[in-house]
Amino acid sequence: MKKIEAIIRKSKFRAVKEALHAKGINFFSYWDVTGIGNESTGQVYRGVSYSTSDIQRRYLSIVVNDDFEQVTIDAILSAGKTGDIGDGKIFVSDINDAYRIRTSEKGGETLN
After folding, report:
1. Among the listed residues 92, 55, 86, the one whose alpha carbon sits nearest the alpha carbon of residue 70
2. Residue 89 pLDDT more than 80?
3. 83: which residues sit within 8 A by CB, 6+ positions away?
4. Rounded CA gap, 106 and 20, in Å?
5. Candidates 3.30.70.120, 3.10.310.30, 3.40.50.10490, 3.30.160.390; correct CATH number of 2-111?
6. Of 6, 7, 29, 85, which is the most buried if we count CB atoms within 10 A?
């Protein structure tokens, strides 16, 4: 099993969610997060430009069986890409085990 964590633009969340659903990945968690990166953002208030270093993003956490790892990554890459600095990052980690609390099932079948 793999844990795929992605930090994406908030504006691309709907497209990424639809791409994941189209590939059969129907369960994941997400949070609104703030971070600091290479992208510089600015806001205009009453004609004055203000630079902010805090960037609003959406953080996705997805656990999939090994055979869905590349499918999941490809869906996020294709739907989340704008080609500009600040598109985000994807991190992949190994998951040793999983348990379904309701039935005490163990392993990959808990992801179905």
Report:
1. 92
2. yes
3. none
4. 24
5. 3.30.70.120
6. 6
Tell me the C-alpha distance between 85 and 82, whole Å.
9
43 closest CA partner among 35, 51, 32: 51
**pLDDT value of residue 39:** 62
- Nearest alpha carbon to residue 37 among 50, 13, 53, 51: 53
Model-wide pTM > 0.70: yes
List, in sequence order, every residue forming a beta bridge with 59; answer none if it has no partner: 7, 31
User: Cα separations (Å) of 26 from 20, 64, 96?
Assistant: 7, 10, 21
Angle CA 46–47–50, to nearest 5: 90
Instruction: Give the tens place of pLDDT for each residue, 44-81.
Output: 666 666 555 677 899 999 999 999 999 999 999 999 99
